[in-house]
Queue: 2 jobs
Job 1
Amino acid sequence: MVAAENAYGPTNQPNFFKAFFNHFIPLTSSKNTAWNKVTIPADTDLMVVRQVFDFDQFDEDGDYSWDNRFYLGVFNWKDVNGDNNVWEDKDGNKVVNFINDPAITQIDGGQDLVWDDPRTELDQWEFVRFDYSRPGGNQSEVWVQHPLERMEDGLFYWPIPQSWLHLRR
C-alpha cells in the first residue's frame, strides 16, 4: 500500500488543504450500508475517535525524539453527485489517489486538486473535516459533538503519518 500511495510521485502526496489522506476508513452512513462499521447510538452527545500506535513506531531509534507522527481527522460526507461514495478506487490499489494542482490557488496558501484528472478518485465538494489532531505523541483523538445530528450522509476518518507530509525531523 505504501507504494500505491506514491504511485503518482511526491508532488501528489497528501496536502493539508484539500486531500489530507490516502486511507479512507468509513465509520457510518445513512446512504451506504457498507460504511456501517460503528453503531452510533441515537442519543449520542459526544463521539470520541481515538488512534494509538506502537511507541516503537513513534520513536524508532529510541532517542526520545519522534521519528513518525500520525494525524487523525474525522470527516462529514454529503453525497452531492448521488453515486453513494466519496471516492472510487479506479485503479484498485486500495488507497485514495489524487493529483495536486501545482499552482498555489487557495487563499490559505494551499494547493487545490486537479478535479478533472482521471487519476483523482475523490468526489469534489463531498467531504468536510469536522476536526483533526496532530499530537506530539503516539496517540490522538478527535471529538465530534452530536455526530448523528450533524452528519449529512456519512462519517469517515483518516490516519496519516506526518512523515508522509514531508515534516519528518
Job 2
Amino acid sequence: QWPEVFAYLVELRPVDMRLWHARGRTFASSREWTKASSDYEKSLELLTEELSQLDPADRSVALFGGAAVGLELAALKLLSGDELGYRDLCKSLMKTQVHSGEHFVANHLSRASTLLPDTMTDWSIPLKLAGQSVAMKPRIAWYLYSLGIAQHRAGQDEQAVETLKKSLEVGPNWVGCGQNYAVLALVCHRLGRDTEAGDWHRQTQSWLNETNRVMAEFKFGVAGSVYLSDWLCAQVLLTEAEKLLSGNAGSK
C-alpha cells in the first residue's frame, strides 16, 4: 500500500522473505498477476537460500512457508500466462520438498503439481503425496480435495467423484470449496456427464462471485485472507473447465 515504506523495510531487512510475500499478496488481491509472481519468486528464492543453510531438524517451519508460497506462485504463474515458468517451478518444488514427510507440505506440493492436466509424466507422485496427507489427517476437507484432483489427473475419475464429494461433506464451510466444484466439472466432462459438468461449472462461478463479494469487504481484500491460495487455484481450474465445456458446446 505504501511503496516508500516497503523500500525502506527491504533496505533494513534485505533477506526477509515475508516482505516480498506480503507485497506479492497485495498485487495478487488486485489481480496484478505478473507483479505478484515477481515478488513471490523473490520470496521463494530467499526462503530456498534459508533452507539450504538450515540443519534438517530445523527446516520444518521454512518448509511450511515454502509449500504455501510455492502453491500460490504456481497459480500465479498460470494466471499470468507463464506456463513454462509454472512447469519449471513444479520441477524445482519436487526437488526441494518432496521428501519432507510433512502432511501440510505433501498436500501443497500435490496441489501445485495438479493445476494443469499434463504437468506430470508420472501422476503416481502427486497421488502418493495427496494420499499421505489424507492418511495422516483424514477429516480435513482440503486434503481430501487434493486427493480428489490427483485421482482425476491420474485417470481415476470415479474415485475422484467420491473423494471430492467427501471433501464437501466433511468441510461444508470450507471457503475454498469452489475448487471441488471446478474439478467435479472437469471429471463429469470426461465421464460424458455434460449436464452435471455444466451444473458444477455454474456452481463454481457462483462460488467465485460470492467469494469476491465477501473479500471486497475486507480492508486488504483477499490478501488478508488465509484462503488466498484457494482463490487463486480455483480461478486456474475454472479457466480449464470453461475451455473444455465451451469446446464441448461448440461441437454440438
